[in-house]
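During the no-cost extension, the postdoctoral fellow (Dr. R.K.) reprocessed legacy sequence entries with the updated structure-token encoder. One reprocessed record is reproduced below for audit purposes.
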Amino acid sequence: MAQPALLHSHSVLPSTTTTSPAHRRASQFGRLAAPRRRRNLRPMASATVQAPPGLKEGIAGLYDESSGVWESIWGDHMHHGFYDSGEAASMADHRRAQIRMIEEALAFAAVPDDPEKQPKTIVDVGCGIGGSSRYLANKYGAQCNGITLSPVQAERGNALAAAQGLSDKVSLQVADALEQPFPDGQFDLVWSMESGEHMPDKRKFVSEMARVAAPGATIIIVTWCHRNLEPSENSLKPDELNLLKRICDAYYLPDWCSPSDYVNIAKSLSLEDIKTADWSENVAPFWPAVIRSALTWKGITSLLKSGWKTIRGALVMPLMIEGYKKGLIKFTVITCRKPRAA
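Re-encoded structure tokens follow.
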């Protein structure tokens, strides 16, 4: 997840549904980045996208440094919480909101709870320290493999799995999400909770998730996007580009894409039952709560001990709030299904 530094059926084409929260069921830091070219953030092309130099190393270093700070204050789930619209977030209920985020994503994708149909094998792409991996393994009694670029995260996540008696169910390893170390068709559920924003090649990212998915498997991507472009636009506005660039520089992110880009990628890969929703209103309370936690004594001392990369990321957290308020940043869920074998 790009977490904040404190602590970041169809015959011809698949069906596509865009859903707002009102129409749903009721209810992963600052690393100094190398200079980057200006992002025009046009719709994603089909050509292979080259990662900026040092990106993987930067992401790994970012999380090596900041994950311990986040865990000490916010726990083992390194992602947004899900709140009712207008609800205030507090430190006391942040874990409940983060667990709710997982459950809302599973419900949106209609992942079955029936023991005969629920997933038995899961991959957690961009697993952090394995919060989702352990939760899903416990919920479904499933085998869960997690991948992260951070050796510190993999080691800590495996230690937490051992401490919780889940070593036989959960295994985390260092691996690239764009070159997953798994055979084709291995997993019943392919899960990515706030890691897509780190992927320089969004098509390759989704393609790899589809490759390791078993026939009929569900794919769930929860990620940060920029708004969809209007028909008259071929780029975001200059002030929007500038805001995103400042966030990217702090959190070591490559180019962003829109929800529509993800839908088009999924269609091009012949994935089925494609659905999206904008959950921006439901995560709005999260960043103010993170900022408040950074301003506590524990937060301040933890930041000072962690180093400049983490501090720099903390300083741009208000930009995330600004991006959400302007409607530029869209907290998006995309779900789809790999076609069943003929």
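Confidence is low (pLDDT under 50) at residues 3-46. The first helix runs from residue 55 to 74. The remaining legacy entries will be reprocessed before the final report is submitted.
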